[in-house]
Each structure stands twice: as C-alpha cells, then as structure tokens.
Amino acid sequence: MTMKKGKNLLLLGALAAGLSACGPQDSSTTDGSGSSKGSNKDYDLLVWEDQSKSAGIKDAVKAFEEEHDVTIKVVEKAYADQLEDLRLDGPAGTGADVITIPGDQIGTAVTEGLLKEMDVDQATQDIYTEAAMQSQIVDSKVYGLPKAVETQILYYNKALISEEELPETTDEWLTYSKKVTTDSSYGLLALWDQIYYAQGVIGPYGGYVFGEDADGNYDPNDIGLANDGAIEGAAYIKEFYDSGVFPTGIIGEQGINVLDSLFTEGKAAAVISGPWNLEPYKEAGVDYGVKELPMLGNNKHMGSFIGVKSYNVSSYSQNADLAEEFVEFITNEENSKVRFEKTAEIPAVEALASDSSILKSESAAAIAEQSKYAELTPGITAMNSVWEPIDSALQTIATGKAEPETALPQAVEQIKSAIAATQN
C-alpha cells in the first residue's frame, strides 16, 4: 500500500511560502505571557498566533471585533510549541481560546482531549484544498481549519550556479557535487539522515510510513519503512554520504544549523529546505533562486512531506462558539489572501491556488509545483513513535555503521513496539 497522498496539490497551491520564525512581537493588546491578569479578563478571546505573523491577521481581528462588539487579545508564540503550552495553561484557565499548530499534531491533540470538535458545514470545508482540510479531520470529525501549507524546495546560490546550469536529476547533482566538493565547497546538501527529508527519496522508491485501511485512514499496523522500496531508497541516499559530498557536520541534531550556515556563507551551491528559510536566507545576503525538487535516479520525481498550519479551538475555551466563529472568519478566502500579502504564507484555499497575484512569486510557484509530488505528514498519534527510531536508523546508515537492510527493519520493530505500548 502507498502512503496517503495529498491530492490536487497545486492545489495545496498553498504552500507556506515563508514560514520563517523571528523573535516574538506582540500585537495590539498582548502582555507577552498570553495569560489574563487576575480573574477578570479584559478580552473575550485570547488567540495564540505564530511568531512574527500577527500582522497578517491584524485587520481581520479588528473587523471581527467591530462586527461582534468583542475584544480579542493576540499573543505570538512559536506554533510548534503552542500545544505544549496549552497542556499547561489550559487546565489553569490561562490558555488561549484559539491556537495555531502543525497539522501533524492534530491526532495527538485530539487523543489528549485538547481540541474542541468544530461544527463546520461541508460548504465551508470545500473552500480548502483537499489535503489541507483532510489534515484537520480525525475519525470524520473536524478539529480545525487550515491557514497555510508548506513543503520542501530547492534553494540555489546564483553566485555559484545559474538556473541554466542546475542539474535536473539527483544523479546529475551527485556528479556535480563530486566535482566541486572541497573542504570549503559543496554542491547539493540535504538532511537525508532525517525521515522528514529522506521520505522525499524513500517514497518514490516505494517506501511509506503508514498504509491505509479500507476507509482511507492511516493504518498504524501497516508500516512500509523497511520494505524493498524503502531499502532501495535508503541505499541510494547512502551513495551521497559514502561519496563524501555530504560533510559529516550535517548529520545529527546540529545538521540543520550546519547546512544553513554552509549555504548562507556561500559554501554550498544548493540545499533542500523549506519556505521557513526564505526570509533568513535573504537576510543573510544570499542571492538565491528556488525551484521544485529534482528527478530521482529511478526517473521518478522527488517527493516531500506537506505540512499544514491550522487554527484550532481549545477544549478549555469558555467562549468556544465565538472562538469557532472567529476561526472560520480568519481563514476565509478574503482574509487568507490578505495574510499571504503580509506574511508570504500561502493559504490553503482552493480558489487561491491559481491566483496570479500569489503564483507570480517565484517561491510560491516552486512550492505549488513541488506540491504535486508531495504527501501529507501523517497526523495520527502513532506518528510520534516513528520519528526517533527511523532517524536513528538513517543516521547509522549515513555514518556507515549499518546497512539499510539491517537498520531499517530494526527501526520498524522499534516503532511497532512503541505503538503497541501506547495502545495498551
């Protein structure tokens, strides 16, 4: 079986074309902590927005306040950390009514009872791209609405390689990288010791994280990370490490920092990364271009995971109906387009997938094109058991400590044991 794919993704035309995370800055009525002062709240809704993104909803918040005669407090927090904050602040009564989190955290949040089921009619669901909306549904119930999407793209340094010179396949990139690699110069760099990036290779070779059951839901008992295709894909990845074109510094926890540094310092011709680096790379002074990912050695297009950012209502909210209405308002077509214009986050609204004002952006066009070959990051709780074992296996492969046919089956057994433990 193949892993569930996001469909009509140009579609996901929505790719978060810029998910950079700078320091937090509060909007209008924030106090920095996000907590109400004392028992008397001076607002009707507390909204946790992503860092440096509140400008994208400022006008919409004001319009909603005026229309409903309410006060909304917006506080910026790193979106990847908001669920953890809600676990602590929700029971204490100081958590947000509305949060924004990664789509692959939805399953865990629902299992823990942190999110309120939303009553969203089919007409409203239909305005979003299929894959983005699917990320918010657990057991046929809606727990949020998508605000933006993202996937990986190829960044290249125009000072080192022109668009015309760009290799079209990973085989050609390997050949190019062998020619230019020195102690301070590299060709293409990628974090293929992490499944988040490596799945773009493993998937097209036939490996998958979870298969699907008869109803189209992820099946945690069907893991395809050690099948023949996964082993073949990992063996292909191993060629890059064995040839020396990937420095040892990009393996492990600090790999992402080393990769970013090599690119911003002009030592790497190209890197595979996400839209969160659009602004940081620009601020570093790199004259870069972006493209969709290349073809693989097996003549299939390199894949990638799609990430979805969403607005969700806390199950602890004392004003849940208003919060739900706000989420529908803030993610509608009009407000989604404004947010793109102010934050560069491409919305997950179907009608905006072909909007010329969005696709004229080089990064948006590259992300939209890559989306055709992307798949949703699984959002079920079992995914929490996947990351560490498979990443460890990929790292042993990258460092030559184990072969794919040994490391991957062992990792899958660890994943199965971890999943079983959570089900008991």
Structure overview:
The chain is globular, with a radius of gyration of 22 Å. The protein has helices at residues 58-68, 82-92, 106-111, 122-125, 130-134, 170-180, 195-205, 228-242, 255-264, 278-283, 320-330, 333-343, 356-359, 362-371, 387-398, 404-423, and strands spanning 45-49, 72-76, 98-102, 137-138, 141-142, 145-150, 153-157, 186-189, 208-212, 218-224, 268-273, 288-291, 304-313, 374-376. The two termini are 26 Å apart. Strands 3, 6, 13 and 14 form a four-stranded mixed sheet that branches. Strands 8-11-7-12 form a four-stranded mixed sheet. It has a two-stranded parallel ribbon with strand order 1-2. The chain contains 16 helices and 14 strands. The chain is of the alpha/beta class and 424 residues long.
Task: Please outline the helices and strands.
Layout: E1 45-49, H1 58-68, E2 72-76, H2 82-92, E3 98-102, H3 106-111, H4 122-125, H5 130-134, E4 137-138, E5 141-142, E6 145-150, E7 153-157, H6 170-180, E8 186-189, H7 195-205, E9 208-212, E10 218-224, H8 228-242, H9 255-264, E11 268-273, H10 278-283, E12 288-291, E13 304-313, H11 320-330, H12 333-343, H13 356-359, H14 362-371, E14 374-376, H15 387-398, H16 404-423
Parallel strand pairs: 1-2, 8-11, 13-14
Antiparallel strand pairs: 3-13, 4-5, 6-13, 7-11, 7-12, 9-10
Give a nutshell description of this structure.
The protein has helices spanning about 60-70, 80-90, 105-110, 120-125, 130-135, 170-180, 195-205, 230-240, 255-265, 280-285, 320-330, 335-345, 355-360, 360-370, 385-400, 405-424; strands at about 45-50, 70-75, 100, 135-140, 140, 145-150, 155, 185-190, 210, 220-225, 270-275, 290, 305-315, 375. With about 425 residues, the protein is of the alpha/beta class.
